[in-house]
Amino acid sequence: MRLVRWGVRGGERPGIVDGDGRVRDLSGHVADIGGGDLSPAAFDTLRGLDLGTLPLVPLGERLGACVGGVGKFICIGLNFADHARETGAVPPVEPVVFMKATSAIAGPDDDVMLPRGSTKTDWEVELGVVIGVGGKYIAEGAAMAHVAGYCVINDLSERAFQLEGTGQWVKGKSCDGFGPIGPWLVTPDEIADPHRLAMTLSVNGRRFQDGSTETMIFRIPFLIHYLSRFMSLWPGDVISTGTPPGVGLGQKPPVYLKAGDRVEVAIAGLGEQRQRIVAAA
């Protein structure tokens, strides 16, 4: 299944993409695409629906983040060895974990507003993993049973806020709009192998990132196992699993986003995001 949330920001409604690529309204069957509605039982109910009987969502409706009510937005840094090298870092021996504020979450095609004082706003295409079944001390061999689905994330970063002065990763990653998620939450049965997905990101038509989830250092089962040692994972938690090389910081000289830029972000089988960068308010 390809699940979506559609409508005005803060008032999104649940939907599902049918075989013709049209969004159908799920409001009569599920409260949201999030929390308890991500359970295997809830998904089994959705799979039993006749999509042709569901109301069509009007073309052009805004898509919101494909998962609602996110409790934790957990990110893994430097999880692609070639990306670690381009930033001058040594590939880590265990996962580098940080959080993005949930207030950074945005729809896949929402405008991205540069924060005031920004000089080094950067991009990162990442595979998102959404938890469907919560747990703690999850065994690596059982971890994939806790996954509700996968999605595209652009882990936007303000590098000056992140790395300079008293720089902190959370501070540089959590600006409003710095976490577009979606367009779809794709259930695991649709993805043969989440560790063999092409990942791309372009700015103004120029391809900067062209990688694959194959080059992850720490793979999804281990990440879920590892994170659950330190915190309970809840339904609706999002794990952003790292980015391949090609970020702006790694260019020579570095390249950063400016007002008017257009960003396209895609992962094979999971859809595409399109964002316009706008000036600070």
Spell out the blueprint of helices and strands.
Layout: E1 2-6, E2 13-17, E3 23-25, H1 40-47, E4 73-77, H2 81-86, E5 96-99, E6 105-106, E7 112-113, E8 121-122, E9 125-131, E10 147-154, E11 157-158, H3 159-163, H4 169-173, E12 179-180, E13 185-186, E14 198-203, E15 206-212, H5 220-230, E16 238-240, E17 262-267, E18 271-278
Parallel strand pairs: 4-16, 6-12, 7-18
Antiparallel strand pairs: 1-2, 1-13, 2-3, 4-5, 8-11, 9-10, 9-16, 14-15, 14-17, 17-18
Features:
12% helix; alpha+beta; 281 residues
String of helices and strands: EEEHEHEEEEEEEHHEEEEHEEE
Given the structure, what is the number of helices?
5
CATH homologous superfamily annotation: Fumarylacetoacetase-like, C-terminal domain
Q: Structural class from helices and strands?
A: alpha+beta
The separation of the N and C termini measures 38 Å
Backbone shape: globular
Q: Give a short account of the largest sheet.
A: 5 strands, mixed
Quick gist of this model?
This protein is of the alpha+beta class and 281 residues long.
Descriptive report:
By secondary structure, the protein is α+β, with helices and mostly antiparallel strands. It has a single domain (64-278), classed as Fumarylacetoacetase-like, C-terminal domain (Fumarylacetoacetate hydrolase, domain 2, Alpha-Beta Complex). The chain has five helices and 18 strands. The strands form five sheets. The protein has a five-stranded mixed beta sheet. It has a five-stranded mixed beta sheet with strand order 7-18-17-14-15, with no helix packed on it. The longest helix has 11 residues, at 220-230. The protein is globular.
